[in-house]
């Protein structure tokens, strides 16, 4: 396993650069079981978990907005580039964007043609990209409004965006501090740090922020050129009714997906 550590705190786990056999494609309950098993090993062996997620996400986006072949897609908060690789395998022109060189180099060399930039201040022209993919970025960045504003700005009219994040009151909302985060963003991290010291990564207020579903949906609705097409729990999209129920959605969604279109 390759570990590349720089000065900063790492947000994503280190990954193996070795080529391996891909996990099989599963459906229904077998898929949930597979994801759960891979997630439980994610800290020590992240590649299979992210490979399955990337494969699923790209196949889904190809069905909805495809063909992705030839589309210019920005992968915001790309980390080492699992998703960028899957987009490129589908023939897309994918630009991985991340503001941390350490994260980009987590698997060895940073992904090709990456851009080192803040997702809330992108170096792209207005209306220049077909799709924006932002997986597990919002909870690690301090400026949700800035990121949504940039998504609105860079998308072409009719372009799509996929924004997913681990919302704060999800069982994994506090990341390594879970379940202390359930005490709230002030008390939870403070108590965790008193008892255990700083978390291994994702210190609250530096690499982790409390991002809730209700306020994020209200925020997104303030951007006039973005239309919310669909909101769903990432890992159990069939239980979409959950995201319509305030309160319940904050604890039962786990990871929230907002699908957007630029008007
Ligand atoms: C948890 S990782 C997600 C990686 C990948 N997208 C995934 O879903 O597996 C979060 C990534 O967002 C990056 N990030 C955090 N804040 C950012 C910002 N303001 N602009 C660009 N990237 C940012 C981090 O460096 C990190 O690589």
From TrEMBL:
Species: Capillimicrobium parvum
Keyword Methyltransferase: yes
Protein's UniProt name: Methyltransferase
EC annotation from Swiss-Prot or TrEMBL: 2.1.1.-
InterPro entries in UniProt: Methyltransf_11, SAM-dependent_MTases_sf
Lineage, uppermost ranks: Bacteria, Bacillati, Actinomycetota, Thermoleophilia, Solirubrobacterales
Ranges for domain Methyltransferase type: 74-162
BP terms from Gene Ontology: methylation
Top EC class for this record: transferase
Keyword Methyltransferase: yes
GO MF, one annotated term: S-adenosylmethionine-dependent methyltransferase activity
Record keywords: Methyltransferase, Transferase
